Amino acid sequence: MEKVLFENENIRVIFSENDITDKDKLLIMFSPMNFSMKSIDDFYGKGIVKNNKINAISIMALKSHWYPENYMKDILGLINNISRSFQHIIIYGVSMGGYAAIKYSRRLGATHIIAMMPQWSININDIDDRRYYKEYSSLANELDNMAIKSEDISGDLYVFYDNYHKEDSLQVNKIIDIYHNVFVTHTPFVGHTLGHILIGSEFFLKLCHTVLKKDKNELIHLVRNKVRNHPMKYQGIMRNAFKRHISLLVGVIERLPNDHVIFNNALFVEEIKYLLSKIGDVNRLLRIITKFKQVSFENIYKFIMNRSLTYPVIYTAHENFLCFDLLNKKLVLCEDSEIKSNMFLIPLRFHYDAGILGVFEDNNTFIPLIDIGNKQFSLMSTMDFYSLGNYKMQPFLFYKKISNFFVISNGIFHATATPKKIIDFGKEHIKDWEKFQMKLLPNSGRDIL
């Protein structure tokens, strides 16, 4: 049964009595910023309360106002009239709601507080956190003395937050500084999204029971199990890795199984686009993009083609560029416009005055091209290449600089570039068509291997 305890243009308070025989615990919940009711009989935490048959009071901010004192003064007495008959009073809130849960805990007689990513204050004169400057500036008079003080708090305080999140860490550390009875659970890399992760009726009931038992080890286990494989956790890990180095980010993605939930998450598309724009190794890039179900090849093209070329590639007498077609496994001669429109064409280059034709992964690990017959080629695995004994016995393509040009051979015949954009091996002589140069792609906008 629901009863409206209080309502005005700023706050609505509902008492939901679901078990009249249970006087053991009362749950008081403060809604976060931007909470909106789906219907007139809706209230914050309704699913949790109804599914678990918990007696609860839901305090809903109808605007983003951080529950200032003059908004709450008429409400606290109404709630205390109900709460004084309960043994355990658990106050719960997320972000703005977490602030209020702590701020009014003593006046509401709290025995336990569950606060996720709470603020200590949003007053920029109190703390260097400008995320909520707009809300604070519109309520400066009401929030002038909003910082939580030690005398505001009572009960066991349980705080959950991402210790890698700068502003949330700053806020929580202020709370820890003023109150002695705080148990902190770190949830690294989730950012300010924890309220979207630690959800569900069954989970919440377990959370309350664990808090009441004061079993801190079980609490850590419960929360981390919930967070461990959530897509938002992996988004956070990837963002954090990218801040350090692109190779760390790529490594994280490559280690995840192809069926991992993150690869179906449309929310991560923007990060993936940015990732694609930074990877210079096309083979590695292809291994990554095939994992992501939400990223179309159309989108990939746009980003791949906007990358800058930093070194010259192989150029023929017919003014074409020598490329490896990754899809069709062929050596092809292409114009620069074809390369810019097809991400599977890998322009090749000579790395030294003589050597084996192939590519460098991350400009470090060499991957050679090998002849697999029928004018088709493949990239040999790095492990196989470095385990070889006699290179000359392998079906590699060799190149060598002679005077001011290069020649390419399969160990028997020289490669020849025909006007029909075909590479053929069958010439013993060296004339213009067998001579290769190095040249930058004009206005390429593409990295190559």
UniProtKB/TrEMBL annotation:
This is Alpha/beta hydrolase. InterPro entries: AB_hydrolase_fold.
